[in-house]
Amino acid sequence: MKGPLFYSKILLFGEYGIIKDSKGLSIPYNFYNGALKIDGASTEQAKASNQSLIRFTNYLKELTKQQPELVQFDFESLDRDLQAGMHFDSSIPQGYGVGSSGALVAAIYDKYALSKISVLENLTREKLLRLKEIFANMESFFHGKSSGLDPVNSYLSIPILINSKDNIEATGIPTQRPEGSGAVFLLDSGIVGETAPMVQIFMENLKDKGFRNMLKNQFVKYTDACVENFLAGDLKSLFENTKQLSKVAINHFKPMIPSQFHEIWERGIETNDYYLKLCGSGGGGYILGFTQDYEKAAEALKNYKLEVVYRF
């Protein structure tokens, strides 16, 4: 058995801000994917994944006892498949901010949830919010606190526009221009990041009034503008606002940016060759880059591994 593929995602805009009701834009990233698999595999990786799935299943059993109206699963089939060695066969790097746990949550829901919301349905706002709530509860097993957006994106495999906590919708994004000189790219930090400690730092910072004001008056303001600019295809404004967002991040989110990247982060802002921003919670994993001239950015960052996500 090999289940359907679930893809990684990239939150282009909205990291941390969506906790405080900023806009957000999440897109599927088909370069990485994962699927549930039963093939009698006995690799160490498959065994570790199987054990992790058993722990996750125990968590889901508790969750369905506490919130029976939220979601129910076919635990008989799930337990049987786990005994047969089922694991999540995935190319999605863990701790990189591209939704490895989200794809796993989506795969389990897709195969074992009873009376599930289908991808083929007319996805009303109510259904999307319902999915987000179910997935937030499921994914909390991995992060302690989850918005549920990564699994929604992985499950539906379509771009998701977050207007606010209680208002999300499927959206279209401007068509890529494969020959375009501008690009959104991923920079590999070479460090595995952990979501929970980064979110903890952010929650601590929220106790500070100055930080809360900065978040509202700068971070959320520029995040909202970037989402609107990107969807409207207004590249001039997009790069102006991304530059501001990059500045706010290096000034106020330093703990989330690995120290060895502080200098190249600032260099991008000074030269305008590229602007860097957090990809997910930060602390390692991927860093997201925006540039109007990819060749120039690639030259400036030639010591790092880059992957193009989207061409302007």
From TrEMBL:
GO terms for molecular function: ATP binding; kinase activity. Residues 84-150 form the GHMP kinase N-terminal domain. This is Mevalonate kinase. InterPro entries: GHMP_kinase_C_sf, GHMP_kinase_N_dom, HddA/FKP, Ribosomal_Su5_D2-typ_SF, Ribsml_uS5_D2-typ_fold_subgr. The lineage of its organism: Bacteria, Pseudomonadati, Bacteroidota, Flavobacteriia, Flavobacteriales. The keyword Ion transport does not apply. The keyword ATP-binding applies. Keywords: ATP-binding, Kinase, Nucleotide-binding, Transferase.
